[in-house]
Amino acid sequence: MNGTQAALAPRLTLISHPLCPFVQRVAIVLHEKRLVFERVDVDLDDRPDWFVALSPTGKVPLLEVRDRLGRGGVLFESMAICEYAEDLGIGARLYPDDAFARAGQRAWIEFASAMLGDAWRLLNAGDERAARVEGDALRGRLRRFESELGDGP
Description:
Blueprint: H1 3-8, E1 11-16, H2 21-32, E2 37-41, H3 49-54, E3 62-66, E4 72-76, H4 78-87, H5 99-123, H6 128-149
Parallel strand pairs: 1-2
Antiparallel strand pairs: 1-3, 3-4
Helix pairs in contact: 2-4, 5-6
Keywords: Transferase
GO cellular component, one term: cytoplasm
Organism: Burkholderia plantarii
């Protein structure tokens, strides 16, 4: 980020939990965009009143945004936050310019997000049979996802 971009960049606070994969998604995008942000972790088992007041879903991540004049608000949902970071026009572009390619990228992001649910069900399976079924489902999704990745970064 150059000096002008830094001067115009909003003040960002990522409200998070250290184990949330959706928070990690946002943190990675903010780092890749070279956006400076403060990170505040909350205990999701004992949500503070200020957090409950800010989060319409009661979930993390939240991104509190303030401009140089102190104006702003709060964004929620990881993909909305990531798209906001991209739309700021600061740092490297993370989404393709082509509408079809961009939509395809979003579709694969959703596919990967669904795998988090598969992993959760596997980790919380009640017995060995259920774990086997969930593990097979997750492995199938991973194989499909890996086949799309190719050899690039």
